[in-house]
Amino acid sequence: MARPQQTDVAVLGALSIEPMSGYALREAVTSVLGHFWHESYGQIYPALKRLEADGLIERQTGTRGNSSVFSLTTAGADRLDQLLAEPMTVDRPRNPLMLRLFFGRRLGPDVCQELINEARQQATAQLAMFEAIRAEMATEPQYAADRPYWLLTVSAGEHTARATLAWADNCEATLATLSRLH
Amino acid sequence: MARPQQTDVAVLGALSIEPMSGYALREAVTSVLGHFWHESYGQIYPALKRLEADGLIERQTGTRGNSSVFSLTTAGADRLDQLLAEPMTVDRPRNPLMLRLFFGRRLGPDVCQELINEARQQATAQLAMFEAIRAEMATEPQYAADRPYWLLTVSAGEHTARATLAWADNCEATLATLSRLH
DNA sequence: GGGCACATGTAAGCTGTTACATGATTAA
DNA sequence: TTAATCATGTAACAGCTTACATGTGCCC
Questions:
Q1: Which residues of A touch B129 (CB under 8 A)?
Q2: Does residue B22 approach strand D to less than 7 Å at its CB?
Q3: B63 by DSSP, 3-state: which?
Q4: pLDDT tens, position by position, B55-109
Q5: Whole-angstrom Cα distance, residue A107 to residue A178?
Q6: pTM of the complete model
Q7: Taking residues B15-25, what's their average pLDDT?
Q8: Chain B closest CA to A64's CA: distance in Å?
């Protein structure tokens, strides 16, 4: 069937920025790609094993006893470019907040308002996080060539978060009316 | 472990609006919840079987030979309310477009621009779809009590789509500059 | 010596998709 | 009659999470 190996893109991509251990890879994916991507250890370690067996990455012994540092091989870089150029898999959305709001009549306007308030708080927290990411990037001159692309994803996150806040404001008025009619 | 059964929420929820067959259920989920939810036959039919065995839904013989119409039982309605009130599962984001743009340096500015143009077209198509949904809802007085909640989800989709368009405009300027430096 | 962060990996099991198999009804 | 749509279901498999098992090195 060969669905594009999305995990491979993330792993090879991260190692293309700089060599690191599986643990650091997970850290990097969580903290840097966290707002649009996710990988668990159960995905990462088998992926590293497979990619190593395929000659796409190389393992060097790290500074600690049992630790390894993985880096891209030439074949790995080619494979990454090939994967990046493949058509993207359609994302099948599953938004549990929307599912609840759609059946919101059963929950009532006040519970719906609480759910939306949660979403608002998350969006606010995200905007603060993006602010911090921008500040941090400005202090790291070594990634200058990648930075403009990274900022595209930060900007996307900011636009989405601000859209959530605007939407939440809209909802508030509607739900207040419904609540008054109780 | 008992992760909340999200499929059950969608199935019970849909049947709470009106009784229907498994096939119609799939249709309804795809067309009505499509912009924020998804279910496949491989999920729906086993779920219907299980929910029937648990006495949460009832099966009546439909108009066609082998067809069934499912409707909520009282226990099913209770279960739905219970599931809706449960905390939402955290969504683990996986946005293949952002993953590609993050490593966009390897693709180059022109390919990135193409990817963003695709996203823009999708957002435009979505806005047209939401327009159509609003028009259709206005002609269906029987769902008046649910409509305000449904419109919350439509509004969310519209805000997100407009945010995508604004973001795409932003990106275009950045990428045009990068392209000129080639 | 104890706790924490770093580090690697596996196994069980659930979720969800895809492809397949089958058949009824309706409209052209 | 034949194609499209309606309709039900299963089996194989891919993807992913969680929990577990194990160990190192550093700092207090």
A1: none
A2: yes
A3: coil
A4: 999 999 877 778 899 999 999 999 999 999 999 988 899 999 999 999 999 999 9
A5: 12
A6: 0.94
A7: 96
A8: 29
